[in-house]
Design brief:
Pfam families: Ion_trans. By secondary structure, this protein is an all-alpha fold. The chain contains 7 helices and 2 strands, in the order ααβαβαααα. It is flat.
């Protein structure tokens, strides 16, 4: 949580300094660069976080002056600019919205996430630390320093005279526990390798499927283009047939007219 708090403080400092410099430069333009000015720049935005808004210094300030010689000597307060009286409250409202509402809720969310993550692993961490502590106490000599030298000599003679067999090693609870841990680690590594291979195979299958889909899309586009061409050719043929039909009808009319005229001439 300390790390989350540091991240929050850095982000908050960026917002605070940005608002502090911008608001002070608008309220009091051409202010001299002094330690007092720097203190005033940081003081007001920081106290804004706790509810102190200093509205009487910007809106209801009556005993103020714009004479540089007076406010530099500390005789009277400097009057804020007209632009600052209008823009200052708007900037302060936006700053308080981000700092008191958004940033505070962000800090609470970060703390909640960290707490839940630690709480999920707390039992496992406690068991592992308890195992380390018990193992440490079991492996320590019975005698305290400097008498423990005799204990080490005793252990050396014991190892030389009575070699431990595999059966004795298997009776050691910590040895068996180390074996279980090694087996669990090997299983984890095998499972990770298996998942990695599956991921690679799935990626290859996905790439092949995408290539197949692209090929099908190209074929469909080709068929659509061919169908469009066939439709255009069919429309062209139909138009020509209509023209031929109209031409034949015109010929029939002309022939009928010529016959009718010939019949009229042959009549007495």
């Amino acid at each position: 949580m300390v790390q989350d708090l540091l991240y929050f403080l850095v982000t908050m400092a960026v917002f605070l300094l940005a608002y502090a410099i911008a608001s002070h430069s608008i309220l009091y333009p051409d202010a001299p660069v002094t330690w007092e000015t720097a203190r005033q720049i940081i003081r007001k935005p920081y106290l804004h976080l706790y509810g102190e808004l200093f509205l009487d210094e910007t809106e209801d300030l009556k005993d103020c002056t714009n004479d540089a010689s007076l406010w530099k000597n500390g005789t009277s307060e400097r009057c804020p600019s007209e632009t600052g009286r209008i823009v200052g409250p708007i900037m302060m409202a936006i700053y308080l919205l981000f700092s008191n509402i958004l940033m505070l809720n962000l800090l609470i969310a970060m703390f909640s996430y960290t707490f839940n993550k630690i709480h999920e692993r707390s039992e496992k961490i406690w068991c592992f630390q308890r195992y380390i502590m018990v193992k440490d106490y079991v492996q320590r000599p019975v005698l305290c320093p400097p008498v423990n030298v005799f204990w080490h000599i005793y252990q050396l003679f014991r190892c030389c005279l009575h070699k431990r067999t595999k059966h004795e090693l298997s009776d050691d609870p910590f040895h068996s526990l180390n074996g279980v841990m090694q087996e669990a680690l090997s299983r984890y590594l095998k499972r990770r390798d298996h998942l990695t291979k599956n991921a690679v195979n799935e990626e290859g299958f996905r790439n092949q499927a995408l290539k197949g889909i692209e090929a099908l899309n190209k074929k469909v586009d080709g068929l659509e283009t061919k169908a469009d061409r066939e439709d255009e050719f069919r429309r062209h043929v139909l138009d020509q047939l209509k023209e031929m039909k109209e031409s034949i009808n015109n010929l029939h009319r002309k022939m009928a007219d010529s016959r009718h005229k010939a019949d009229e001439k042959t009549e007495p």
